[in-house]
Amino acid sequence: MQGNSQQQAYDRGTNIFSPDGRLYQVEYAREAVKRGSPTVGVRFEDGVVFVAGGRLRSSLQVAESIEKIHKADDHVGVASAGHVADARQLVDVARRQAQVERLRYSEPADIESLTKEVTGYIQEFTQAGGARPFGAALLVGGVDDGGTPRLFETDPSGTPYEWEAVAIGGNADQIQGHLEAEYEAGIDAEAALELALRALEDANEGGGLNAEGMSAAVVDDDGFRELSPDELSDTIAGHSLDDEPEE
């Protein structure tokens, strides 16, 4: 019984380390991310592509109300997996910091610095009493002032990681395996978008993709641009990745 009560103490305390050096609440937050719909980010020669899966809870739900890809600034996009409400709070942090950088230095925010501001905010919730970690992970990507594309992942622990291609959310390991096998440096935006879609389709065990509920965006030298539902649907069908049965 004593062992169980000690275990519960580590479970309940967001800022209490277990004897083996683990923060259970952070690990539970990672599990919350894994239960979310998958999101993929792919860096290409001139920018970054985001593709996010989504699930409609009902045929009456408006697909456009599912927001998983956001514009943080003209040159920065943010995509999420996990608890949407938590993710929106972190997106707001990124947006505010991006504006602070513009007002303070009269130049766009550096992608790496912006990501570290967000992860610094996340980390505070792993050591403060009376708060819980964020049950969301973000992909922060865009183009630096010098034209260099950057893509970062944030973890519920508050750790940033830089990637060339990465998946977060449900089936992330399987999607990541596809990305690692197929990614090539120097690809263009169209190839990056196809790679992200094929990785999602592969994790769907060949069941095909349905653009309804999904979203995609491209960030390059021309800025942030989200694909319309028709564009995304046409792209999926053009690569024969849709879930329409063959005749």
How would you characterize the overall build of this protein?
- The chain is an alpha+beta fold.
- It has one domain: Glutamine Phosphoribosylpyrophosphate, subunit 1, domain 1 (4-Layer Sandwich).
- The chain is built from seven helices and ten strands.
- The strands form two sheets. A five-stranded antiparallel sheet has the order 8-1-2-9-10. Strands 3-4-5-6-7 form a five-stranded antiparallel sheet.
- β1 and β2 (47-52) form a beta hairpin.
- The longest helix has 22 residues, at 84-105.
- The radius of gyration is 19 Å and the shape is globular.
- It starts with a helix and ends in a 9-residue tail after the last helix.
- The model has no long low-confidence stretch (mean pLDDT 90).
Strand order of the largest sheet: 8-1-2-9-10
In DSSP terms (H or I, runs of 4 or more residues), the helix count works out at 7
SS-based class:
alpha+beta
* Fourth-tier CATH superfamily name: Aminohydrolase, N-terminal nucleophile (Ntn) domain
Question: Using DSSP, what is the number of strands?
Answer: 10
Summarize the biggest pleated sheet: 5 strands, antiparallel
Approximate strand percentage: 15-25%
The pLDDT mean sits at 90
Helix and strand string, N-terminal first? Answer: HHEEEEHHEEEEHHEEH
Rg on CA atoms, Å: 19 Å
Shape: globular
Percent helix, as a range, is 25-40%
CATH architecture descriptor text: 4-Layer Sandwich
Residue runs with pLDDT of under 50 for 5 or more positions: none
Number of domains: 1
The CATH class, by name, is: Alpha Beta
CATH topology value: Glutamine Phosphoribosylpyrophosphate, subunit 1, domain 1
Could you tell me how far the N terminus lies from the C terminus, measured between alpha carbons in angstroms? Answer: 62 Å
